[in-house]
Design goal:
448 residues; mainly alpha; 2 strands; globular; disordered N terminus
Length: 448
């Protein structure tokens, strides 16, 4: 079957639990398989396209976008116009920022800026692909399982670095950078938690074992931001499951207690070579005034605010944070090096970095999208969970945890970030569609 080749299905009466039925599914079996493979890769982007330094996900995503556009045509525009307009506003905000700053740029800088615009167009398209796929297919449950398995595999890789190479503690990771590991753990750990409680019986204890390995990996990776975000994501996932899903609530409560005991007891068996770096990293939270990592983040926040004050409406230009310089007052803990050595660091705060580069014009549409996803996402997850579609819980929890982590990481210029945005947008659209189908069905029953 070719990608996206499922025929349009028509039902005489709308079903409240089949929101895609009257519209036709977006992807065929091959397309959904590709989509799931891309999702797994985005959790652990270990390889690039040879010679091109391009993520392996990019050509596959472009293939899926092209196929969806050719096969579904104007129907997607009609049904997803609201999300398309939000995406267009995000891209246009970056374009306006570029237009306001292009006068003082050289040719090479202008070319680089237009490459950033192309990247934003791609990320917006990824966002829309994720939204449309979740909204118009039954891929949600399988997607949650794939993401759970992928993040557990990532945890195995990080723990494997510790076993094979002694890469334990802060800034010791090998395959990916510490922040990349930390971001992925923050965003996708809720899926592993969900799998423990909602997976099939034969996989449940395997999921518990995977969760233990994942917890160890998160601890030894040493990303303090991910520690905080993982706690938030876990709490939100469990809250959604216990508050809105009435299926086996008592059993899940017992499973939660047993899982916590198993993880706690297993952690006591870890050798001191593994626990000592974690304890040392934890202790740094009590002396942040002497912590260089924290000081660098504070310094970059100060730089972002100064850049924003200099050009509040249009910013300094998309992709220009590392290039622009401002007067920096170094704290004593960073006085070993000259201030100029810190000018080319990333913003370490996705939101302030966006505000500095794009100003209010560029940042406002992105912040609007985040507010929509956060506010309507809670409503959408509740509706899904009440129907037993609990896979929606880790999608929203992962988005929330990721959003917290982005306050300490420059992660908006990342394909996986926009993919997660799209998943939550798809949940919201799907919930609205189910509500419409339910009301239509109720009217038909009332007439008959």
């Amino acid at each position: 079957m070719a990608v996206g080749s499922l025929a349009r299905l028509d039902f005489p009466t709308a079903s409240p639990f089949a929101p895609a039925a009257r519209e036709g599914l977006l992807l065929g079996s091959q397309g959904q398989t590709l989509f799931l493979c891309v999702a797994a890769y985005l959790v652990a982007p270990l390889l690039d396209v040879p010679y091109w330094e391009l993520s392996l996900s990019a050509p596959v995503l472009i293939l899926l976008m092209t196929d969806a556009a050719l096969r579904q045509g104007f129907g997607i525009v009609q049904r997803f116009l609201g999300w398309i307009l939000v995406g267009a506003a995000i891209w246009f905000g970056q374009f306006v920022s570029l237009g306001a700053n292009v006068g003082g740029m050289g040719d090479a800088v202008v070319t680089d800026a237009f490459l950033w615009l192309a990247k934003y167009a791609f990320w917006v398209a990824v966002f829309l692909l994720g939204a449309v796929t979740v909204a118009r297919s039954d891929v949600g449950n399988r997607l949650a399982k794939v993401l759970a398995a992928a993040v557990i595999v990532l945890g195995l890789l990080r723990a494997g670095e510790g076993v094979l190479f002694g890469a334990l503690g802060n800034a010791k990771s090998l395959l990916l950078e510490q922040n990349d590991y930390g971001w992925a753990f923050s965003t996708f750990f809720p899926f592993a938690v969900w799998w423990v409680f909602r997976g099939s019986l034969r996989w449940r204890w395997a999921a518990v074992l995977g969760l233990f390995v994942l917890c160890v990996a998160i601890a030894v990776n040493g990303s303090r931001a991910s520690w905080v975000a993982v706690v938030i994501g876990t709490a939100l996932t469990l809250t959604c499951l216990f508050l809105w899903s009435s299926v086996d609530r008592a059993r899940n409560g017992l499973l939660l207690v047993l899982t916590t005991l198993v993880l706690g007891l297993a952690s006591t068996a870890l050798p001191s070579a593994w626990t000592k770096p974690v304890e040392e990293r934890w202790q740094t939270l009590t002396r942040l005034d002497r912590d260089k990592s924290y000081a660098v983040r504070s310094l970059m926040v100060d730089k972002a605010l100064r850049l924003f004050e200099g050009s509040p409406w249009f910013g300094v230009g998309v992709g220009r944070f590392r290039v622009e310089t401002v007067d920096l007052e170094l704290p004593p803990v960073l006085s070993t090096f000259a201030a100029s050595s810190y000018q080319h660091r990333s913003a370490h705060n996705a939101y302030l970095g966006l505000l500095a580069e794009s100003g209010i014009v560029g940042a406002a549409p992105v912040i609007t999208l985040l507010l929509i996803l956060g506010g309507w996402g809670v409503w959408a997850v509740r509706g899904h969970a009440l129907r037993g579609e609990t896979w929606a819980a880790p999608m929203f929890a992962g988005f929330a945890a990721m959003s917290v982590h982005l306050a300490l990481l420059s992660g908006l210029t990342n394909t996986a970030t926009w993919f997660v945005f799209g998943l939550v947008a798809g949940l919201i659209h799907r919930e609205r569609r189910i509500g419409w189908a339910y009301r239509t069905s109720a009217r038909h029953r009332g007439v008959s």
